[in-house]
Amino acid sequence: MEQMLTDTLQPARQPVRALAQLMMKKTKGNPFFTKQFFRSIYDQQLLWFDYSARAWTWTKRRSKSCT
């Protein structure tokens, strides 16, 4: 999961380990639910591309409440 996020979120503004752990906890590694969770945090603007930093970033606290 961590490698997938590292590859997907190039460049990332912050380490992806915490996000990978959260995604594994929420989805149990199921590819369908992983895709849905990833899309959900993007749609809720908890994951976004910061153009000024030229990197992906996310909100840790609010992401934990996603289902």
Q: Topology of this protein?
A:
Layout (H helix, E strand, L loop, with lengths): L1 H7 L8 H11 L3 H13 L3 E4 L4 E4 L1 H4 L4
Antiparallel strand pairs: 1-2
Spatial extent as radius of gyration: 11 Å
Largest sheet: 2 strands, antiparallel
Strand content: 5-15%
Instruction: Let me know the average pLDDT.
Output: 88
Distance between the termini: 18 Å
Write up this protein.
The chain has 67 residues and is mainly α. The chain has one domain (2-62). The protein has four helices and two strands. It has helices spanning 2-8, 17-27, 31-43, 60-63; strands at 47-50, 55-58. It has a two-stranded antiparallel ribbon. The relative contact order is 0.19.
Could you give a quick summary of the protein structure above?
With 67 residues, the chain is mainly alpha-helical. It has helices at 2-8, 17-27, 31-43, 60-63, and strands at 47-50, 55-58.
Key features?
single chain, 67 residues, mainly alpha, two-stranded antiparallel ribbon, 2 strands, 12% strand, globular
